[in-house]
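The aim of this short unit is practical: by the end, you should be able to scan a pair of folded records and say something sensible about each. We start with the first protein, listed as its amino acid sequence and then its structure tokens.
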Amino acid sequence: METPLDDETPASTEGVEPREDLKASDEALAFLSNIEPAELQKCVFPDSLVTVSDSGKDLGMFRVTVEFARRDQQPCVLLQAQSHGTIDDAPCGTTVTAYLTSELGVLEEDYHEYIKLEGHAVNKRCHMVQQDGQMVIDKVTTVGEEVTKESVSFPMSVLRGLVTEGSNLLLMRLIALRKAVPENMTFITFDQGLHIVLTSFSELGLNLLEVGCETVEVFGVERIVQSVEGEPITWQCYFLDDGHLASRVQVGSPITMSCLLLPSQQEKGLEKIPLVWQEDMEMRSKFLDRKEELKADHASYLRQHPEIRALISDFLQFLLLRKPQDVFQFAREYFLPFASRQPSTPSLKKQ
């Protein structure tokens, strides 16, 4: 949802000086410079995982898509990641949209994180873009009615080996496809305070994981993100043989993101058999009868739930009031608090 920043109280703007001693390792820079087009081609696919608690309760969804695109007529890779769900009955979610070069350099990235607590909401938006040899970053944090703005910029010369929230997801796909993490795989990134910090990747080796009804071998990658203002954050991810993400967890968190079906099973479930029902008189008759039944059933349901019309009417009024550029994103964020609770599903177990 768009935040009316111009109507809020002014907030501070700070500059952050880069530390010259924090640099990506030679091994990390070599990895980025040696990415082949054929490797990127193998990374163009979607990932879908469910988010579950340690008790197996379904909390939401996590989805990543990677595709080739163009930005300002420049060929690039577009990565989009979305997670949404509830924590302690509070709707929350994260959206990342990143335009990347073939060496995972960030051309532009938008990061949005929110949680809707009782009585107020917390929104964090961070946008970074390359402009005139600089990486310009604008961050807006909204807590209830209080808005804080931060704007910083760094020369691109000090950001060699930068890995962001968006490029990190694609980087780990590439690592998983190679099934090896070079020694001293250390990059730079930004922490929550927009300071340059180190982030390192290491190999967790092979493991067994239950996906659906099968036990499969997965390759593990661990990422540690340092912080100037807090403790390091550690992520552990396990990937299938073809690079698909099978499990993702932040160490110390009771929440796990897990794959419920193997990609081959997901594709099989989406297969459709062509059906020319118009040429089958019996089937056409059944279709028309069923159509009338559904219309009557839907009309009855709407009469029993007048709040539906009110909800849609409120949404359209709010949409026309805000007039957002991205209608789909606006609708996603507007309806998220009303998302129905899904029945719990068993969590995946590592062997």
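Turning to the second protein, read its sequence before its tokens, just as you did above.
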Amino acid sequence: MTEKTTVLASILGSEQVPAHLARSVIEEKVRAAIYDGRLPCGMAIRQQELATLFGVSRMPVREALRQLEAQGLLKVVHHKGAVVAPLVNHDSVETYALRMLLECEALRLSIPFLEESDFAYAQDCIERLELTGDYVEISQLNRAFHYTLYKRADNRRLLQLVDEGLIEEERFLRFNLEAMGLRKLAQDDHRQLIEAARQRDIPLATQLLREHLQRGVDAITRHLANTQRQDQQG
């Protein structure tokens, strides 16, 4: 086993995975390690190394990496193959801007049809978010919270696009909550959003959602500006 494989094994572990579960297991393990920072940005993820670790052919590994690339977690670099993508880049701002349009429309359409069980589930997501420091769980709960408030929108294509955006947003979550210290603000935003939706106040709810997403845009913009200045000074 090569040195790189040893490093990857220490991060992901090694196990024999049934062939029919290989793609999903590998995808989830690599995703979790990217979210919590164990797989750092720029680290190469070799197909053969993963196949060896999990005792499978390269086909399910290739499929898993393709899914992670589609989610923005990996990028293909010439002569290196798949590497862990930066947590934040210039596309991040555009992603948030698109999310703002799509999610505000989904929330607007959904609010009149939300049920008390939806509010209760969204509240439960907030309470569970308070109790965990696991970024995989945080990302899943954050996505569940938002989607619960949007899911009554009577537009399946819109909801599909919204869900794709929420999946892509998970790669920014650790940056926004940890590096930029937005965790408490995010939770406050969530509570206010539930209350406005419960009151069926669509203008207020969509305004709160825009402000919530704008915090992410502002944090990323500041980070990119600081990074550019540091690069220029270096």
